């Protein structure tokens, strides 16, 4: 019996450190807009996302290194074309390094690397839209309270914030990102679902198993094109009054 009690904590400890993989399929009605897949361990979170974005199919590869306290010590966000090659315009990669009371952001271009340092202690990172796996890091760090507001830096380069606001039950509303998506987590801080119906994004995603071939999916995806053309509506009221909605 003693041997059993000694071995059990070791087995539990090993299980808690094992890699956990997941995927999220972001849908707008019946149409798939993006697919994200990521793997989380005690020391890192790595993933990839493919998105049907207007005239093109785009991919994002990301990685986050975690310290012993669960906070990021460094990260990388790579922008790729559908075939896996770097994007033709703009920065192909963003690198983040957290050192002491500052965070360094590097934007890597074909012919140069732009570097900026910010005074920000224990900063987090705001990721692009349809990259929500890293919110598990925030969930793990959350200490409770009505609202979490943590310093964060994004690909845009300026300091901002990230965090959650309660949204009822097991749900929270993301703060600081491009969209105030509603997120659901389980007791182990695993992301179970993403709901953007309360935003202009409107996409919904549910957690699934990993093991997807993102490169093959990107090759088969078709761009969305223009989802809604521009129009205007005009209405007259009163003597000479006019309302135009563009």
Can you tell me the overall shape?
Answer: globular
What low-confidence regions span 5 or more consecutive residues with pLDDT below 50? 1-16
Structural class: mainly beta
Number of domains: 1
* Strand order of the biggest β-sheet: 8-7-6-5-4-3-2-1-15-14-13-12-11-10-9
- Kindly state the mean pLDDT as a whole number? 88
Please report the total strand number as a whole number.
Answer: 17
**Proportion of strand residues:** over 45%
Structure write-up:
- By secondary structure, the chain is mainly beta.
- The protein has one domain (21-218).
- Helix content is 12%, strand content 47%.
- It contains three helices and 17 strands.
- It has helices at 2-16, 135-141, 214-220; strands at residues 20-28, 31-40, 44-53, 56-66, 72-81, 93-99, 102-108, 113-119, 124-126, 150-154, 159-166, 171-175, 182-185, 191-195, 204-208, 233-237, 241-245.
- The chain has a 15-stranded mixed beta sheet, sandwiched between helices. A two-stranded antiparallel sheet has the order 16-17.
